[in-house]
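I wish you would study the pair of lines that follows with an eye to the fold:

===
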Amino acid sequence: MVLLLQLTELVKFMLVLAVFIVGFGVAFQAILHPYQSPSWSTLVDILYRPFWQMFGELFLDDLSQGMGSYPASA
C-alpha cells in the first residue's frame, strides 16, 4: 500500500520535472542557436544540457568557443 503511494508520487514528480526540463531546454536552445535547423542532435541538446545543468554543469567550454567570432563591446 505504501509502496503504491510512493510510486504514484514519484511518477507525478518525474512528470513535473520533465515538463520543466523540456521547457528550459527549448528556451535555452532557441536563445543559443536561433537559426539552427531541426535535427536529432537538437533534440539531444534540448534534453542533455538542462539535465546536467540541474546538477551544476554549466558547459562553459562550449559557450566560450564561439566568443572569438564576435567583436568585443567596450
Observations:
- The chain is about 70% helix and 0% strand.
- Residues 2-32 form the longest helix (31 residues).
